[in-house]
Here is the input.
Amino acid sequence: MGKKKLTWKEISTENAIRTEILEKGENSSKVELLKELKEKNIIIHGRDLIKDYEIGDFIVRAVDGVSIDVKEGEFIAIKGPSGAGKTTLLNLLGGLDSPNEGVIYSQGVKISDMEEESLSTFRLINSGFIFQNYNLISTLTAEENVMFPMNIAGMTFKEQRTRAIELIKKVGLLERREHLPFQLSAGEQQRVAISRALANDPPIIFGDEITANLDKRTSTFIRDIFKDLKYEQKTIIIATHDDKLIDLADKILEFDDGKIVSEENR
Here is the structure.
């Protein structure tokens, strides 16, 4: 069966997507699943996820039969050794990659079999990503980097700039907003990256070792930002070794060898 391609209108309006799923012949079990997820306030639902990578003549299983439910407003920290598969799991849940096997629903939408074009649009308005290496566009200023996802989403220039300045001010970089990434410190670049992730006000924030390359002072500053995001009831899923961030989590998952080996609810 081919992958389903959704229009911009269907993707940008959550109710339209759910209506499209229900009206176009999805079987009753999927309808019941969607009802169950809504009743239980589950914003991300992953079942039996497998992700393999070919490396030369070998196949490496980065995610091995993982099932996970994330409730709306929940803060989940994933910890484990390097190479355990934490980043791959984040990428699957956030729609940056697709599983070889298993299904993923995000906000009632089955994203595990979306076409890339539709998936990109879904990510744009539903998920914010913060990476260990920042991934800023080198030719754009801090302000322009924050404006970039809003521009793709179709906001007016005035709306983009107003929102970008608001976010950059929030992370304490208003006077640095016209600087290019190479003119910023590592901590400043990460703060710009956080602002960019929040640009379209997504309900879900993903972070991958976001304080790994930062000094203690900056890490504490970023922890405070995430404390505020938790207070705002954003759904947050991060892979981290940072104890200060882990302390904020409602649930801690220990990940090793592609599997969730333990789970702690707090």
